[in-house]
Sequence to fold (152 residues):
Amino acid sequence: MNLGIVSDTHGLLRPEVLTALKGVDHILHLGDVGKISILEKLKEIAPVTAIRGNVDRDGPCAKLPETEVFLAEGHYIYMLHDLSSIHLDPAAAKFAAVLSGHTHVPNYTTKKGVLYFNPGSCGPRRFELPVTVGLLTISKKDALRPEIVTLV
Fold:
């Protein structure tokens, strides 16, 4: 299964995002969507699971869940916007991955067997940070394979 991982669109869906996500099986949006129309446009590529972020205070985006658990090829993935607000031990909960956004800084690392993956931001550029999305390849046998794709 190939997942497209996006965060912090802040109301802007760049054409490069659509190109980078073409062919994924599912898209996970990690909050700060900004406009519900972004999720509708992403659904033209693949099914979407989305959570809300700190800027999603009004309208339909405010009704998105704060966290979500997504099951892919037997692997449980925990989704939240701001990693600093996590209130559980992902390893003890048997999560394969924790996906978060908020910082706009793309990175991934593994701790206690759990992948922590932040795809960065694909919305308006912030400071000198790159505009990025994430791809996550998952199979029943193999480890999760994260990739950060720089767009502009």
About this structure: The chain is about 10% helix and 30% strand. The longest helix spans residues 15-21.
